[in-house]
């Protein structure tokens, strides 16, 4: 192929005017109608056929087809309604498959407005398609309708394309006016030309040119199509209800998404005014994402269905939303689209993710977006804010993405320049988290790898107040409308539960090291989970997460240090005097020590309306969703114990429910079982066969250095993959998934995702204890994946445990994975045909035999 070859347009006069086409040219026709575009296509297609070119028609518009089917024409239909990424990726793969030298006809690009509602995204598509078509030495014809797009969209197309040609029809005559012809020039090239058959008569006389252009309306600067639709919707506020409802549904599909249960709920509760209010706080265009939708919908449900019940206790919000189109624009305008396309392939999915992640952390935002970022920061002043992921698939029915993407606190201290730099980097960090390994595995395991996962962003004011140099809310946590951690037969699971902490809620959603949250069963908030009296202090919160204003960072402080400051409310709402520890100190001769505190939230749960309000809030949300829900919240108190709750997030709680009651077999001898326990399991009623047990032995594991412990975790991942499809129980000391190897095995969740049961075994001698992390992101992963959870506290009176039933049998690890011999003294794998695990929620009995 001669890449310098000149190619005919099919009109000899036009060829002369523009010095013909070159391989690699993208030709954009600015037209008044699709019919006029067809008139320029006919000679181009006829010439391509005569030259025996490979001819491809990319069909996506709602207008009549531009070309008729033929044996020498490949018609590729692309569904633009699936969104920008799907469309652009499909076109990319098409161009890649057709290879060099192909000739293309595209439908009118203006028709994409009906699907994407955004001039910006049409410009983005052209920026990603045009260079690739040029690279493969193709010729491609495009059209846009004159005065239908913003000046900036046209400027972007002009900058990217090789030829931009105006096509006018005046008094039944066609005129072509070249606006850009790359790498070609003649003294008459940029004059208008009258098309007469094969001729193109150059209009050089000023009298003729003026007469021609005086009849043509150039149009005024046009708003983005997105803004036009919202302006029309504002005007509909004064019209009848049916018109408002029609406009509302149109805008909801632009902001919230396509048909889904969430969209149905939004349609039921949001008014047109609500949608316009949301849109007024959006930066850019596109969807606001699942986390934003969930938060807004839950608040609206409480407002409407709760009437006056919740409003007096609700903290208002003033959030902003970065539209999902900003994410794509950031990728396109930094020149990374081809890399993203390669990453979306099966072979490139993990291979190219690290490179793309690194680029996402270091890109530049368009100037108009930067200006809107400045305005957000000016609005919040120096109030701390949090930049949160709000992807399209997040917090929806079926996929919670709990903890898979980043949230970044901006303490928002320093000069305007410093605060802006931190805000921009927080957004980049959230964008880059789409390429995190856990997020990639999550999407892959749930069949979402090929779906568009556009990242919108929710920017929220951090709830709380200044307390000296620190900023934090009094309490924060997670709430579930269904309490699947039923540790006592008296627990009413339908009353819901809270996972409660003092300070920022980061400690409520993560499995913390050496620190514990307060689990609150809302049917009886003062009821404690099963533990010995002496363990109340040990299994309580001792570290508080907060924002340090002087350090301008998220940090942690000891409980005593924080409680010594003015809380602007009563300390004893949250903390009680720890008389037991005080007595122990006196016995040790420290009689002069002040009595320490324990964060037990006793008076908060006993003497305030907070637990009742939370129970009713969860119940109402669950009722409207017709599904269990999971919320994140904060609450702040005044000196008279009045309080405001800030509802930060609400999503469907992925759960398979309790299941049908299970009859546990009776044991004539306790030695007849592998283990038995009362309580300390999660996953409902089960009778589950166990095909194999993977057992990590505590002593040899702890004897390893940290590198060795991480190597064991990676080996567990290989076993997890090798045994996929079988019912396997994974057992080990301490906590699965910890980030601290001395407390358990530091696997990623994807490295145990195919297990049917995971069991955390207490090893008091080695100081390794399970953590019943109900309500955390780790728990959410277990529930979504359908993994049954067991915590075994060997040595307790209600626990029977016979590890020798596994360890005395032959280790089949090496036969499964021949390269695993170095780990055979740590990991013991046994096939267990006939083994079953039983659990019954009502009696809280658990048995494995």
Descriptive notes:
One of its GO terms (molecular function) is kinase activity. Residues 288-658 form the Pyruvate phosphate dikinase AMP/ATP-binding domain. This is Phosphoenolpyruvate synthase. Pfam families: PPDK_N (PF01326). It comes from Xylanibacillus composti. There is one protein chain. This protein is of the alpha+beta class and 849 residues long. The protein folds into four domains: 6-213, P-loop containing nucleotide triphosphate hydrolases (Rossmann fold), CATH 3.40.50.300; 281-461, ATP-grasp fold, A domain (Dna Ligase, domain 1, 2-Layer Sandwich); 465-652, 2-Layer Sandwich (D-amino Acid Aminotransferase, Chain A, domain 1), CATH 3.30.470.20; 670-848. It has 29 helices and 36 strands. The strands form seven sheets. It has a nine-stranded mixed β-sheet. A nine-stranded mixed β-sheet has the order 29-33-32-31-30-35-36-28-34, with no helix packed on it. Strands 12-13-16-14-15 form a five-stranded mixed β-sheet. Helix 9 (241-255) runs parallel beside helix 11, helix 10 packs across helix 12 and helix 12 (290-305) crosses helix 24. The longest helix is centred in the first third of the chain and has 17 residues, at 34-50. It is elongated. The N and C termini lie far apart (72 Å). The mean pLDDT is 88.
Determine the mean pLDDT: 88
Q: Work out the strand percent.
A: 15-25%
Query: What oligomerization state is this entry in?
Result: single chain
Number of separate domains: 4
Amino- and carboxy-terminal Cα gap: 72 Å
The CATH homologous superfamily name of the largest domain equals: P-loop containing nucleotide triphosphate hydrolases
